Amino acid sequence: MKARLRGLPGQRPRRCAVAAGPDGRPRSVDGRAVAALREEWRVEEGWWGEPVRRRYFEVVLEPGRVAVVFEDRRRPGEWWRHGR
Amino acid sequence: MLIALLIPRLPLQAALAARPGPPPSEPMAVGPDPLGAPRVDAPSAAAAAMGVRAGMPLSEALALCPGLALVPPDPAGARRLGERLLVGVEGLGLPVEPLGADRALLDAAPGLRLHGGPARLVARLQGLLPDAGLRIGAAPARFAALAAARNARRRPRILAAAELLAALAPLPVRLLHEDGGLDPDVCRALELVGIDRLGGLATLPRLSVRDRFGAEGLRGWRMSRGEDGGAIAPRRAETAVRATLAPPHPVATDQALERALAVLVADALADPARGLREPRLVRLEADLITGESWLCEAPLREPTADARRLVLALLPKARRLPAPAERLAVVLGRLAPGGRQLSLLPTGGEERDDRIGDAERQVRAAVGPTALLRIVGAETGSRLPERRYGLRPR
Question: B27: domain range?
Answer without folding.
Answer: 20-71
